[in-house]
Amino acid sequence: MLTVYTLENDHLVLSASSNPHALENAAWLDLISPTPAEIETVEHFSKLTLPNIQDTEEIEASSHYEVYPHGLQINCSFLHQVNGYFSITNVAFLFNNNCLISLCAREVSLLRHLQERAQTTRGLILDPLSTIIALMEDKIEKLADLSEEAYLAIERISRQIFNRNNVILEEIIDNLSRQDDLNGKIRLCLMDGQRDLNFLLRRGRLADENINTVNDILEDIKTLLSHNAFLSERLDFLLNAALGFINIEQNKIIKIFSIVAVVFMPPTVIASIFGMNFHFMPELSWAWGYPLSLLSMVVAGLTPYVYFKRKGWL
Questions:
Q1: CA 152 to CA 157: how far, in whole Å?
Q2: pTM attached to this predicted model
């Protein structure tokens, strides 16, 4: 799908059509799962070669950035929620002095929100570079919000682990795994944003105002990366704690079985002796043989139980 936006009175305006006149005056061409005909049309008017969507998934620098005679390409990663799960969508941005082109396989909410804001806010978007920087600001702000939510979720899990009031530790481990997955994706997007902004500083020919904005965003990213590393260490500690408590619970069960086996072992030996079918067994003729054997089994069973109790093993 091809969506065309133009700039009118410093406002982003959604074009009603994608005719040649609209394309020539476009400020932003948004491509979501485009058809080959739409790609050919955009390449014709922009004089830029659009990459394959699969190429935007590459992480090496040679595929992450491209420098064209008439512009630049940056591949950015955005974290968003789909059907209750967080996933990363890569977007390729190509731009020259007049037009920004975004290419992705699915809709990214941050792009849509910026487009909606730019239609109502005057001067939010003035050129392709200011659009990229505004997107980076929104992206890092969103990642900061997700980091705060992750911290609060991890603290709730921590209280559940150490209070252990009717808590299923297996469910806690599942929650920790989800938080660790989210934390890892946040880190990937932060590192991606850091690389993109450093590339813009080197190749973007930014104005002084934009340079200051980019440096401020880079400082925010450094702070968030430190916080992200702290959350990773916290998750590792809580996971080890949860596994340790599970081992303790399992050891308690094994201890009960071990004690039961030791308690019943002496009575079993006595019962086995008197249950043998030899022809000559003097004890079989005793008048008090049966009560004595029962008493011996009770004493033999209680003795290890009392011993364990005094040792504090029960």
A1: 9
A2: 0.76
